[in-house]
Amino acid sequence: MAAPQAASASQPLDNGRPAAAIVDSDIRQEEALSRTEAGKVITAIDRTRENIGMVRKTTKLDTVDIVFLTDAARSEGGPPPAIENKMKQHQEDVAELRQEIEANALLFNAIDSRRVQAEDVLAVEFDNPGKVVIYAAAKPPK
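Below the sequence we write its predicted structure tokens.
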């Protein structure tokens, strides 16, 4: 009986502000077109293998930037061919990255707070210590 209580005490999720309790980071969002961000997204997809390790180690971030690639959302037909082809090349790594994001309380709550599903995450890029950019093929919540 002591183990479940100890686990829930480590990350208090029902204190009225669950995301803030875990994230405690500045979560920013912006909208962009995939054609203007394609170079950055493709570079980030190429680095997915090393970024998986970074996601696993991430426990604190100053800033989480979520870039909504609105024209790449499923409702718009998905990512453009250049990004889609790169996603297929790194299909297994991208799937693992999404699993790691779901398993990381900080990153999961950051995307969840903006109603982004892990399956819509195309790539992540660790800009510098304390900052991550998450590229999502999604539209921001209204």
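Residues 34-46 form the longest helix (13 residues).
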